[in-house]
Design a protein that fits this description.
mainly alpha; 3-stranded antiparallel β-sheet; about 50% helix
Length: about 160
């Protein structure tokens, strides 16, 4: 979906939602101080339920942040009016990008978070690590992604 826009900031929003599995509000509230380039981690201090969590900083994010221009402090996603992006803006970025790449289904920012978890699971990552990355308190919440993965596995038999 990142190829659907030439706007670097829009690409970066899409990438944070997918490559870090962030929730919409986590992306909105992300500050430069939350990113540790040396340790290659993102320290989310304003995660859901006022909890903190740490996720990996994907190499593709590092490369895009360097192109975007790294700052020392303040929010990463700032509007032209020098304010933090609002929810609607991010929702529109995702909706527009998904349409441009030909996705017919309704795609929301949370869809990219689901894709992050599902792709990790399908690639063999332990569900407990995924649980931790997503910041889920209960494993049952994370297990929703196993149903998506299993459903796709059943479809594979039809390919033969």
């Amino acid at each position: 979906m990142t190829e659907a826009t030439n706007n670097l900031k829009h690409k970066l929003v899409i990438m944070f939602l997918y490559y870090a599995g962030l929730r919409l509000d986590e992306a909105r509230n992300l500050n430069w101080q939350d990113i540790d380039f040396d340790r290659e981690i993102i320290h989310l201090k304003t995660a859901k339920g006022d909890k903190e969590r740490v996720v990996f900083l994907h190499k593709k994010l590092i490369d895009m942040l360097k192109m975007y221009g790294i700052s020392k402090n303040g929010p990463i996603f700032v509007s032209q009016r020098d304010r933090k992006y609002n929810k609607r803006t991010i929702q529109q970025i995702i909706k527009s990008a998904s349409k441009k790449v030909g996705i017919k289904k309704n795609v929301a920012p949370h869809t990219l978070r689901h894709s992050f978890a599902t792709h990790l699971l399908e690639s063999g990552a332990d569900i407990r690590y995924i649980q931790r990355l997503l910041g889920h308190k209960d494993l049952k919440t994370t297990q929703i992604y196993t149903h998506v993965a299993n459903k796709d596995i059943k479809k594979l038999a039809n390919l033969l």
